[in-house]
Design goal:
Rieske Iron-sulfur Protein, binds FE2/S2 (inorganic) cluster, 9 strands, six-stranded antiparallel beta sheet, three-stranded antiparallel beta sheet
Length: 111
Amino acid sequence: MSARLAVALSDVPSPGAVRVVLDGVPVAVVRDGNGEVHAISDTCSHADVSLAEGEVDDCSIECWLHGSRFDLRTGKPLALPAIRPVAVYSVSIEDGQVLVDVSAPLVLEES
Ligand code: FES
């Protein structure tokens, strides 16, 4: 597999996130406070909660349920209760479309 069309860039809030499912994988496409686009696993590593529903601040996103914040570049939790990182995927922008490759995560999710 390779990069797949995820969403139109204009449909991603700035800052903010949208949830997409690519090849069965839930992904949060996130635009950070600087306008940079990231793609991470949409499932919080603490429980089965969509991270795309959380608040984006600078280069992190906060899980709305218990408040863990994840670094969008590394997937690492920056605050408890989550202790495991979420997967991070490669992103590219072509002709106003966000492409995401879920086949080879840049950072693997720990189980
Ligand atoms: S479900 Fe995300 S921090 Fe608890």
